[in-house]
Amino acid sequence: MGLTIECTDLRKTYDGKVEAVRGLTLRIASGECFGLLGPNGAGKTTTIEILEGLLASTSGEVRIFGKAWTENPRQLREWIGISLQETRLSEKLTVRETIELFASFYDEPRAPEEVLEELQLTEKSDSWVGKLSGGQKQRLAVATALVGNPRILFLDEPTTGLDPQSRRQLWDIVRGFQKKGGTVLLTTHYMDEAERLCDRLAIVDHGVIIAQGTPADLIDRLGGHHVVEFQVSANGNSDGNASGDSADDADWRALPGVESVRRENSTVCLSVHEPHLTIPALLASVEGKGQRLEHLSTRQASLEDVFVRLTGRHLRED
Amino acid sequence: MATETTAPKARDAERVLPNESAQNAGAPKRRNGRWSGYWQLLKVRLLELKREPEVVFWVFVFPLLLALGLGIAFRNKPADISSVVVIAGEGAQKTVAMLENSPQHSGIRARVLERDAALKAFHFGKFDLAIEPQTDGGFKYYYDPARPESVLSRAEVDAALQSAAGRKDAIATSTEASSEPGSRYIDFLIPGLLGMNLMNSGMWGIGFALVEMRQRKLLKRFVATPMRRTDFLLALTSSRLVLMVIEVGLLLGFGVVVFHMPVLGSIFSVMLLGAIGAVSFGGIGLLTACRAQKIESVSGLINLVMMPMWIFSGVFFSYERFPAITQIFIKALPLTALNDALRATIIEGASLASQSGRLLVLVLWGGISFVLALKWFRWT
């Protein structure tokens, strides 16, 4: 399959000072769902808006279906559908009027009724946009993107601020579009969204890609699929250096199956291959040191762990 | 019937082609014409305006209320009665009697008050003139040269007292009252209100609306589609023209029905002037809004642009009252040109050709603004 979206060494500097994007290269194949995952301010929106042809890059090259935005922008616009991060559609138009309006901009749009049905907005088609819930508004925003019958769907943080049910509904819509052969590029700062929805993703931080691959790949690269988290305290004395000091870290690293050790406040996080080997050894080690285990849990590694491992920060630090 | 059987197959093939439209190859295809975007944009703009009660009030109802209020307030202007006070004392009653027996008695109403009360009431504007009878049989007038009615009243009262005392007119004169439709204040006012209204709704309807859409990121969303930007601006302008016809029709109709205002020029000329005015102020509105990101900043700008024209362009009173040296600048303002052209056409029945200078002023303002606006315009 051919490349649908490609950009090479993309850079964007605002006002000659702020470097929002610092050399970003992407290759997105037709039919893929590709995610840009990163914290707020990482440069995701700047990147996607350059790819959408809404923002000029400072340098670098963008090609959509092999064409640059300067060649035939109108034709490219016929092929793509966009949902911006925050668009307030006119509140005093009905859902149907809004969709009819967007349909009228395209040469060969889909039937508005059909799109409304697909996005479960048929019941609301005569309601004013101002009366819709957050989830319905977001679905309408995606409907305005789908009604043009696009080949690529660009979604900038499509589920930010939505309740879990609305998020799942939107995921289904994106999957449905992809199943019919469409290509999707979305940005998100939700790792679960990236993990469930994206075939491949790029983790973006400070305007550069710090890791790229399928979600499973990225987690594999952590070196362990599981995370063991625990807290210890010196016996009978839980104040002072709870969980020991970093001298202990070498001991944890030496436990069987441990790939890496990380600390978060007083919690020790171990990335491990095989928790069933690590945990008995951990218990023995804690006892041998005369420490007491305060808390112990294991879970599957997630993209969040990948991000923390790569940057030392969490995706969402509010 | 070969086509019928091959058609579904062709569609199936489409479905598996990479890079082909992702959605529903099986659904009936709709093809939009060249102008579908323009018509939809115009339709939603008018729908939005209709659903905005404030717009309906400010654009349609407010000018009518203003015309009604001012029309009633200045209705009796020519039939003024002088209200005078006579200071109590010797000769006061005689003075009142002289006034009542004079030929001018119908235009003068006199009362007698104690000196302090009389002067106080005069100073507060309750009376136009205070008369103090003198011991030698003469009179002393207290009047305020800054109040036109006070000046008039002094002349009127003096003539009344002089003739009551026996002065004979040197020559015979006669007068005839003239407050025919066409020369009254309301006839001056309504074309001015028309012009002001076209300015207001052009500036707010285009300038404010654009910045509001920019702030909502709706402009950005629109340019992310294949929408033609010229269609968008054209639709916005067309919506102004549709509104203009209603605005002008309502206000003129109101003047004709309620105040029996004569419209000497052709309706076509008035509407054409209205259209040129609406589009010109639309261009100025577009320029005002070309970069502003927030509605607060554009509101300030719009008021700044309109303020001089409210004052100088002869909406409520003639700009001839301003010093001669300022006239050339006043006449270069677009609202002055529009108001003058509307008055000439409506009240005097002037031809469009005779207004070409004023039309040129309007077209230049609108045209230059439009070109600059397009150059600087920010969609995002």
How would you characterize this protein structure?
The complex is a heterodimer of chains A (318) and B (380). In chain A, 33% of the residues lie in helices and 30% in strands. Chain A is an alpha/beta fold. Chain A folds into 2 domains: 3-215, 3-Layer(aba) Sandwich (Rossmann fold), CATH 3.40.50.300; 223-300, Alpha-Beta Plaits, CATH 3.30.70. The radius of gyration of chain A is 24 Å and the shape is elongated. With 380 residues, chain B is mainly alpha-helical. A 4-stranded mixed beta sheet of chain B has the order 2-1-3-4. In chain B, β1 (82-87), α4 (92-101) and β2 form a beta-alpha-beta unit. Chains A and B meet through α2 and α3 of A and α2 and α8 of B.
Search tags:
heterodimer; A: 318 residues; alpha/beta; Rossmann fold; Alpha-Beta Plaits; 2 domains; 6-stranded mixed beta sheet; 4-stranded antiparallel beta sheet; 11 helices; 30% strand; elongated; B: 380 residues; mainly alpha; D-Maltodextrin-Binding Protein, domain 2; 4-stranded mixed beta sheet; 14 helices; 62% helix; 6% strand; disordered N terminus
